[in-house]
Design a protein that fits this description.
Elements lengths: L1 H11 L4 H11 L8 H8 L7 H9 L6 H5 L8 H10 L3 H9 L11 E5 L7 H12 L12 H6 L3 E8 L2 E15 H11 L17 E9 L3 H17 L3 E8 L4 H7 L3 E9 L4 E3 L2 E11 H5 L2 H7 L4
Parallel strand pairs: 4-5
Antiparallel strand pairs: 1-2, 2-3, 3-4, 5-8, 6-8, 7-8
Organism: Vibrio owensii
GO molecular function: DNA binding
Protein name: HTH cro/C1-type domain-containing protein
C-alpha cells in the first residue's frame, strides 16, 4: 500500500520521481538524502521503509493516512495492551476516579456515544471537570484560566464527552487536548518542563506542524478506554500534520505501558519518596510524555484498536 499511495500521489500531481524526492527533502530534514532512485525503488516495492518511516513519508504528502494504516491490519495483535488493561482498570485509583464523578459501572455491556466536549457557553460539564480537578490533580485547574468553549470554537481545543447511547445526558467521561505549534511546544517544555502554559495553544489548520497535548481526561473502564482511543487515533490518522502527541501523566500504571509503545519521558516534576510515578530509580509526582504520531499510529497497540474501524 505504501508504494501504491506514493506512486498515486506523484502521478496525480504530475511529479517526476526527482520532483517527489525534492518535495520530500523540502518537507523534512529526515529525507534530505532521498533521491529519485530511492523513490523508484519504493514505488516498485524493491525496498520499503519501516511502517513508522513510511507514514512519515506519506504525511509529508497527504493529510489522511487511514488507507495506509488499514493495510497494516496483519500487524495488529498485542498482548501488551491486554496486560495494561488488566492492570490499569483493576487499580484502586480507578475507584477514586469513579467516586469523584459519582459514576457507577453498569452490570451489562452498553454502547458508547461521543460528542465534542463542550456544547455551549457555561456547559454543565465544565463544572464537573472543575470539581474533578479540585479533588484530583489540582494543578490542572489552570484549564479554567482560559475560555475553554472559545478555545474549542477557535479550533485550539479538541475534546470529547462520552456517554452511554441509552442515556446521552449522563456524561461518563471526557478528554481535553490542545493544538500547539510543534516547535513552540518543544521550546515551552525546555523552559517550563511539565508546566505547559495552555495559553500558547494554536488554531489548528491544514498547513503547518502541530502537536496535540492531552491535558485532562477521565476514563472509567476498559471498554471506554478502547472507545476513546479509537476516536483519538482515527482523528490523528486523518490529520497527519499533527506529528507529536504529548500527555501529562500522574498514574504509575500508565508509564510502563506508554514507554513500551514508544513514548518517552520529556519532563518530570516534584520528586517524592513515596507514591507518585517511578522513572528509573526515582519517583515523581507527575511527568510529561511524548511520542511521534508515526510511531503511535503504527504501533501494534494502536492498530489492534482501530483494525475494525477504518
Amino acid at each position: 500500500m505504501f508504494s501504491e499511495l506514493l506512486k498515486e500521489f506523484r502521478i496525480v500531481n504530475g511529479y517526476t520521481q526527482k520532483d517527489l524526492a525534492i518535495k520530500l527533502a523540502n518537507k523534512s530534514d529526515e529525507f534530505q538524502q532521498v533521491d529519485f532512485v530511492t523513490i523508484s525503488r519504493w514505488e516498485r516495492g524493491i525496498t520499503s521503509p519501516n511502517n513508522a518511516k513510511a507514514l512519515r513519508v506519506l504525511r509529508c504528502l497527504i493529510m489522511d493516512v487511514q488507507p495506509f494504516l488499514k493495510s497494516l491490519y496483519h500487524y495488529s495483535s498485542s498482548t501488551t495492551l491486554d496486560n495494561f488493561m488488566i492492570e490499569r482498570f483493576g487499580a484502586k485509583e480507578l475507584l477514586s476516579t469513579l467516586a469523584a464523578f459519582n459514576i457507577e459501572l453498569p452490570s451489562n455491556k452498553q454502547e458508547f456515544g461521543f460528542e465534542k466536549v463542550i456544547k455551549e457557553v457555561n456547559d454543565p460539564i465544565l463544572k464537573r471537570i472543575r470539581e474533578y480537578h479540585t479533588i484530583y490533580n489540582q494543578e490542572r485547574l489552570d484549564l479554567f484560566n482560559v475560555d475553554l468553549y472559545l478555545y474549542q470554537e477557535e479550533n485550539k481545543l479538541h475534546g470529547y464527552r462520552f456517554y452511554y447511547e441509552s442515556d446521552p445526558n449522563n456524561i461518563i467521561a471526557h478528554s481535553i487536548s490542545f493544538f500547539i505549534d510543534t516547535e513552540e511546544l518543544e521550546e515551552e517544555v525546555r523552559e517550563n518542563g511539565c508546566d505547559v502554559d495552555i495559553r500558547i495553544a494554536s488554531k489548528y489548520k491544514n498547513v503547518g506542524r502541530y502537536s496535540m497535548y492531552l491535558a485532562s481526561g477521565t476514563i472509567t473502564s476498559e471498554d471506554l478506554f478502547k472507545y476513546h482511543w479509537i476516536q483519538q487515533i482515527k482523528f490523528l490518522s486523518a490529520h497527519s500534520n499533527i506529528d507529536k502527541f504529548y500527555a501529562s501523566i500522574m498514574s504509575e500504571t500508565v508509564v510502563p505501558f506508554l514507554l513500551s509503545i514508544g513514548f518517552e519521558v520529556v519532563a518530570t516534576k516534584n520528586p517524592v519518596k513515596i507514591g507518585g510515578i517511578k522513572i528509573g530509580r526515582r519517583r515523581y509526582e507527575r511527568c510529561l510524555m511524548k511520542i511521534d504520531t508515526s510511531v503511535l499510529l503504527t504501533s501494534k497497540e494502536a492498530l489492534s484498536l482501530i483494525a475494525d474501524h477504518l
